[in-house]
Design a protein that fits this description.
0% strand; 109 residues; 90% helix; mainly alpha; rod-shaped
Length: 109
């Protein structure tokens, strides 16, 4: 069986197209593989082990307990806004009485 030049031309074209398609899918597969490798390396650099997570969780719980105790201590040991205003009002009343006494003393004077 003999093939003519135009038959070989068609075979060559088909082989070229097949190699192009195979090359395209191979390149796409390799690109995905490279991306997966980069993602895996990123995960390796940033992952947390169970022990580290438990330690972090324990530290966080301890810190939260300490903060809660500090907040309670602040509530107990600080003056509220209403108490401050009452105290200032009492001081103002005392100052007014002192000024009134001074005015009376200067009038009698």
């Amino acid at each position: 069986m003999k093939f003519g030049a135009d038959t070989w031309w068609l075979v060559g074209l088909a082989v070229t197209i097949a190699i192009g398609i195979i090359g395209y899918f191979l390149k796409r597969t390799m690109s995905k593989q490279d991306q997966h490798e980069a993602d895996i390396n990123h995960i390796k650099l940033t992952y947390v082990t169970k022990e580290e997570f438990k330690e972090l969780k324990s530290d966080t719980a301890t810190s939260m307990d300490k903060l809660q105790k500090d907040v309670e201590e602040i509530k107990v040991n600080t003056l509220s806004k209403a108490d401050f205003y009452r105290s200032q009002a009492k001081t103002d009343d005392k100052m007014d009485k002192i000024y009134d006494m001074l005015i009376e003393l200067s009038k009698k004077g």
